[in-house]
C-alpha cells in the first residue's frame, strides 16, 4: 500500500489546483482499495457462486482441448485477480486494465496460482487494444467490467478481433433491469451519482444485447439473480459465453 501511495503522490499532484483530470486520478487510485476490501467482502458470498458457474460453463466448452498445450487467455479489467482461482489448468495469461493502481494487488494475488503462467500487463483501454495482435487468444475473460468501460460495443468488437477462430469469450456482469420496470427507472435515476462514486459504473446497461449483436457464431446467455437485499440496483446479473 505504501508503494501505491508513493506512486500516486508522485503523479496525481492534486493539491492545488483540483482539476477534473486529477479528480479522476484520485478516483482511480482509491477505487481498487474500496472494491477489493469493502465491496467484494460484503458481497462475495453471492459473487463466488456466480464465478463458479461462469467458469464451469467455460470449462464445459473447453472439455475437448489438449491440456498439455498452454491455453492463451486474455483477461480485461482483471482488478485484483478474483477469477484466477477458477482458471483452467495450464494457462498463459495476458492482462489488460486501464487502471494501473490495481496491478500491485493483482500481482500479489497471482503468486497463489502457479497453474497460471502470467505473461504481462498492458495498461490500456479495452476499446482500442493496439498492443494485441489479431487472432491471438483462445479465451477472453471479463467480469464486472462491461458496466464501467466507456464503450461496450467497441470492447466486444476488439474481443472478436483478438480471439482466434473458435475462441471463447466468457462474461460475467451485473446488468440493467428489463424495459418498463421500476428497477430500470431507478437505475437511470441514480446513474449520475452512481457513476461518480463507482469509478464509472453504468448499472442500466443491456450487455446481453451488446454481445448478441456483435457477430459471434454462437452466444449462450444465462441470467443470475443476485438476490441481496442491499444490492437492489445490481440485482440482475448475466453469465454469457460467446464463440467466435
Automatic annotation (TrEMBL):
CDD domains: AdoMet_MTases. The keyword Iron-sulfur does not apply. It comes from Trichonephila clavata. GO terms for molecular function: S-adenosylmethionine-dependent methyltransferase activity. It comes from the Eukaryota. Keywords: Membrane, Methyltransferase, Transferase, Transmembrane, Transmembrane helix. GO terms for biological process: methylation. Residues 74-171 form the Methyltransferase type domain. The gene is METTL7A. This is Methyltransferase-like protein 7A. It holds the Pfam family Methyltransf_11. The chain crosses the membrane at residues 26-45.
